Amino acid sequence: MEVSVWRGSGDQGGYETFTVPARDNQTVLDVVSWIQQELDPSLTYRYACRVGMCGSCAMMVNGQPRWTCRTHVKKVLQEDRLSIAPLRNLPVIRDLAADMDPFFEKWVKAGGVHKPGRSRDEPIQQVSPEESGRVEANKAIECINCAVCYAACDTVAASPDYLGPAALQRVWTLYNDVKVADRAAVLATATGPGGCMSCHSQGSCSKFCPNELDPLSAVAGLKRAAARAFFKGKA
């Protein structure tokens, strides 16, 4: 099969085509590794666990963001051809390795750090697993910050200041956590510049999430919470 791989750094680069043998149960990450090991040792890419736990192998495969370790070639091959590129919406360090700093900087800007309402000297607050906020917060705790949703998001592509689905999903988790000290402050961050109101609700984030999470619903939840706060005179 013919495999086109993006080569270069920053805004400079282009696709280079390699001929790779097809094998049974072959993943896209297997293809990238084979090229690096057999044809061009200078090919740069990122991976770690190879079993869908870390998310570091995420790349654009035929124009769509995917974990390459979990994507089997037979499911994405088009006319015996494959295109592999670094994640969209992020700067390119080199070849297939994208710079994750902007993604994590937005996660921090969104207020993704838990700020507890009690000190370590106070008793641990008991929270029932059935409590409605806890149920809602639990829906997103499997996010591993792979940035697939960020790469899939057209709002991020058009508006570089947009915080992105992963960061806002984290904010929704905190907003629903009864242990968080100031939920109003959490919501204020989410509705500020580049926040949830910038989302166009196209749903690519939820469509492509490898862990089958639903960032779109989280963003919609933030919008509803902001509307309620506004009409109650708390926004």
Automatic annotation (TrEMBL):
> NCBIfam families under this entry?
dhsB (TIGR00384)
The name on file for this protein is Succinate dehydrogenase iron-sulfur subunit
Chemical reaction(s) catalysed? a quinone + succinate = fumarate + a quinol
* UniProt domain 4Fe-4S ferredoxin-type: residue ranges: 133-163
Pathway it works in: Carbohydrate metabolism; tricarboxylic acid cycle; fumarate from succinate (bacterial route): step 1/1
Q: Give the top-level enzyme category.
A: oxidoreductase
Write the record's keywords in alphabetical order, separated by commas. Answer: 2Fe-2S, 3Fe-4S, 4Fe-4S, Iron, Iron-sulfur, Metal-binding, Oxidoreductase
Q: Which InterPro entries match?
A: 2Fe-2S_ferredoxin-like_sf, 2Fe-2S_ferredoxin-type, 2Fe2S_fd_BS, 4Fe4S_Fe-S-bd, Beta-grasp_dom_sf, Helical_ferredxn, SDH/FRD_Iron-Sulfur, Succ_DH/fum_Rdtase_Fe-S
Note accompanying the cofactor annotation? Binds 1 [2Fe-2S] cluster. Binds 1 [4Fe-4S] cluster.
